[in-house]
Amino acid sequence: MIKYLGSKRLLLPFILQACKDLVSDGTVLDLFSGTSRVGQALKAAGYRVFSNDSNRYAEVVARCYIEADAEDHASFLEQTLPELNQAPSIDGWFTETYCRQSRFFQAENGVRIEGMRQTLEGMNLDDTQKAILMVAVMEAADRVDSTTGVQMAFLKQWAKRASNTLELRAPELLPRSKGGNCEAWCLDALDAAKKFQGDLVYLDPPYNQHSYLGNYHIWETLVRWDQPEVYGIARKRVDCRERRSPFNSKPGFKSAFGAVLDALHGHPMVISFSDEGYISRAEMVLLLEQHGTVEVRTQEHPRYVGAKIGIHNQQGEKVGKVSHLRNKEYLFLVSP
């Protein structure tokens, strides 16, 4: 699984228990799925999962880990992964942009990433098969990158792992859920909320100014394979400036989230939020009480690894102190 800011890996038992306490089985919508860690835990627990995210890379990850079932694709992976691993290297736009104009990958790995991704374009695959192989490439690239886990910037000195040889591994697909066939969507959150009819909703919205598209722009480009116009030292996609989400805006968050809640009115909901979010615990409770009875559960959680590194300026000089290394994660359980 790729490194991901906001990953709920360490909180999965906490979240899964909250979901079970509201609805023990049935269909659940993971509205802001990211790398789908929560969706995977729900699928493994027997729920039928609909995974949604507005970023294409997240949809591809969900097609691999939520929509695809191990029973259907194990032999496919066994046959095609060695073939993809032998793809010819290509030194083109991707390598130039992310290995020379920026330094996210060593060039010897960049040409292999580019060659594998271009090979995928010529293979006769359905959307799910392509997603599985694309995730294998993405995860292999993540294991040899030179970042702290986000692609807002690369490390000043090469990370040790960046010198490792890129190696494809088969994604660990989950068996079919007893709840039924799962699905992956790539919709605006409000559109997905209006579409959903099921038993439970899990919400983990962006809660600050940092855009997931900006944080993981290389994965978006790897998936879209569109050679976008780029800018800045990190060579971000230009649409990082254009595809603005109201959830990344303090003035816009409350109304955007309120509209989603209105569309989901009547569904039991579990909302994951942080004490570093745009609205306070008390404000969130007031917002949610319009939709049912609210229970709040709290657990301390380590902050993102960047907090341990410290605050630096663009020249790499340390310029500030980190205020704290732990934060509180809230789960709001809403019973209509």
Please outline what is shown here:
This protein has 336 residues and is an alpha/beta fold. The chain has 14 helices and 11 strands. The chain has 2 domains: 1-68 and 175-206 and 246-336, Rossmann fold (3-Layer(aba) Sandwich); 70-173 and 213-244, no CATH class.
Task: Please tell me about this protein's structure.
The protein is an alpha/beta fold. It folds into 2 domains: 1-68 and 175-206 and 246-336, Rossmann fold (3-Layer(aba) Sandwich); 70-173 and 213-244, no CATH class. 40% of the residues lie in helices and 15% in strands. A 7-stranded mixed beta sheet has the order 3-2-1-4-7-11-8, with helices on both faces. It has a two-stranded antiparallel ribbon with strand order 5-6. Strands 9-10 form a two-stranded antiparallel sheet. β9 (311-312) and β10 form a beta hairpin. α5 (93-100) packs antiparallel against α6. The longest helix is centred in the N-terminal third of the chain and has 16 residues, at 70-85. The protein starts with 11 loop residues before the first helix and ends with a strand.
